[in-house]
Prior knowledge:
Layout: E1 8-11, E2 20-24, H1 35-41, E3 46-50, E4 54-56, E5 59-61, E6 65-67, E7 70-71, H2 73-94, E8 101-106, H3 108-119, E9 126-130, E10 148-154, H4 162-174, E11 178-184, H5 192-205
Parallel strand pairs: 2-3, 2-8, 8-9, 9-10, 10-11
Antiparallel strand pairs: 1-3, 4-5, 6-7
Helix pairs in contact: 2-3
Amino acid sequence: MTDLDFVHKFVPSPSGSALTLLLLHGTGGSETDLLNLGRRLSPGAALLSPRGRVLENDMPRFFRRLAEGVFDINDLTEQTHALARFIESASQSYGFSLDRVVAVGFSNGANIAGSMLILHPESLAGAILMRPMVPFMPDTLPDLSRKPILILAGTRDAIVPREETERLSGLLERAGADVALRWAEATHGITGDEVRMGKEWLADKFTE
């Protein structure tokens, strides 16, 4: 595969903003799923939205899993490297700045964004992780010095236990990231209040 062989959508900034949101869908999603969310989070940002290359029961994902909550670490690592190469190639093709890319990931997409922060921290300026889990525990912590990360978690999420969210938050904080953990009275789905919270956080941390 060439580095742009992720099926994807790119929407240029309508205002010339230097900010690019990397939109990473959940299991069964596609390259169009989070475009509306991305625009709600940042009216001026460019949007880059790839489709996961792995199929599970014909549903796209960004990496394989062995069971619910049990990740195939070898595939996760391989797909994370591929995604980093894709971002670099896309920046050359579409002309956006690599140091102004913020990941917005939901569920499976949040998990590969977390893996990106560990394996390729230079590829992301920050991240909004919605309903994430710990992708894996690294032998050596990455350098995430002051990198802004927002974690959006649901108190009634039956898929991601509270302790898993707190474990991820602690891992990122130990790596030096500027972590904001926000809890909502919600299940695994994202609420309108959380979208507004994400928009405010993004506007505070990243100028368009």
